[in-house]
Structures are given as C-alpha cells and as structure tokens.
Known about the structure:
Structural class: alpha/beta
Number of strands: 5
Strand order of the largest sheet: 2-1-3-4-5
Strand content: 15-25%
Amino acid sequence: xxxxxxxxxxxxxxxxxxxxxxxxxxxxxxxxxxxxxxxxxxxxxxxxxxxxxxxxxxxxxxxxxxxxxxxxxxxxxxxxxxxxxxxxxxxxxxxxxxxxxxxxxxxxxxxxxxxxxxxxxxxxxxxxxxxxxxxxxxxxxxxxxxxxxxxxxxxxxxxxxxxxxxxxx
Length: 169
C-alpha cells in the first residue's frame, strides 16, 4: 500500500508525530467528525489535543473568541469566521496547529452566494514566539451530496488541508 493509499488522518498523525507538533480542532458543520477521524488512529494522543464543536454563534464566541463583528458582518459560514475559529482553537488550546470547519451541510440553509455543500476550512500554524512566522489560511470548497456525504467530504478536505500545510511548513 502506497503512502497516498493510507487514510489522510494516519498521514496527518505521522507528520505531526515526526515533527513533535500538536493539533486542536474547532468544528461547526462537521459536528466532531474531524476529531473522531483523528482519534481513530492508534496513538493519536501523541499529537491530538481536542476537538470543540461550536455550532452556535454563542459557542464560537465563548470557546474560540470569534468576534461578534465577524459573525454579524459575515455570518458563521465565512472566511473571516473560519480564520478566527482556526486561530482561536490554536491559541486557546496552545497547540502548534488549529484546524476549523464551518459550512452548510444541508439539505436547507443555502443561498445563491453560499449554496448547500459550501465549507470554509481554516488552518492556523503557531510558529515560535517572536519569529513573526505564525500564519492562518482559509480555503472555500463546494461539495455535492446528502448531508452525511457532504459532512464526510468536509472532514476529508479539512484533514487534507492540514496535511498539506504541515508538510509545507
């Protein structure tokens, strides 16, 4: 079996373990699925800190320090909120990586600008203090399918984005 044939969560674990880094996850639309997949890997306690499901605006504010302004101006399913979620979980958990998902799993709730199947994935990295190299990137994706199918695709994409970022760091 080639490395790319292995589940992405295993490959994420290998990279984080090898680098001695940790990750925490802030989930909205995935409802804990990303954290579940990470913890499906034996030994994930070496690098996995926590997954926080922040479905409501209040939960995003309370647990991740997402600003009222970002939520009010852009809505929960937006690049600014995904950015604040990823940075918020990274910083509150004091991990090297923060991973966030916010999207519309459906079957209702979509708009022409943000159709059902839209997800924003945020990946935040904490570089050493005073290096100025900490960063956060957010990407938008659109998937098709049932609610459970798009949630699975959201989780897969989030883990893939984390893997890519960790390998590039």
